[in-house]
Amino acid sequence: MSARGPVQVADRHLFDCLIDARSPSEFALDHIPGAINCPVLDDEERRIVGTIYKQQGAFEARRVGGAMVAANLARHLQGRFANMPADWKPLVYCWRGGLRSGSMVAWWRLVGWDAQQLAGGYKRWRQHVIALLDALCPQLQLHVVSGATGSAKTRVLHALAEQGAQVLDLEGLAAHKGSLLGAMPGVDQPSQKAFETAMATVIERFDLNKPVFVEAESRKIGRISLPTSLIERMRASPCLEIDASPEARLAFLLRDYAYLGDDGAALADKFESLRAMHGKDTIARWQDWARQSQLSPLFAELTELHYDPLYARSQAAHFHKWAERQTVQVDALDDASIQQVARHMLALI
What is the pLDDT of residue 4? Predict the structure, then answer.
């Protein structure tokens, strides 16, 4: 490979290190998996240079920015890369494969390293992710794991993975449990772009000739939207339903959502959006239970009056093969029972 030739996304694994030269906020929004962030300009410097460019023109922006770039590159050389060997080969990218990554590559080559620049930068990576999802999602041999709220669907997916199955855990990738109460305490959802990057990374590793288990989802998980290609494939795929007893579901919900009782006021506020659907008296009762952290009666009514009716309406409407579903009946959802459900599902396909 030429030390001067542009590098394509498919060749990124041939390098010792993948360096994202963009600012920290750009990196946080999304980045190529495995990349390390070594900004050529940090967020404030980038803002300053952009302002100068608009107000005084390109020359002055490059003069001021050049000094900042030089200082940052020197800091990286003296710090993170101080002990890299002579045969170290890094791949560098910025937004479009332009000045920021080009500046770093030029310096690293002056040192003597075989540094190269990713053609098209992060923008090319983003195109790769979208194309990959559009190409692979329609080919997935999906089996959709369904079940009413509290059926431990995500835990069953984890058990399937432990037993060697291919699993697409969308809620795990989205950092959200996919319902009104699905936000995870202390955990922010990723950006839409980061979610799609993570999903593409998982799907790219699948054997397309083998089944993939995925949980039944709507178009959105929290604020994350699922790609249309995946939604369409899910809705055309066979379904496996967990039919758990109401007692088992309630016991599971009380374990899995116990943290909601830690902030009753915040929990009560979540029900405001349901007032038009359920009426002020029902919402007032739910909010009172929430404030008192009385989760057992709250979850029992929520499943009976809100989640179960929605589930009954949505499955047949959204999944084309719902009438042909295979059902696994369970009376308990402890760890051993969940493992048994997973074994049963593997035997059904």
Answer: 63
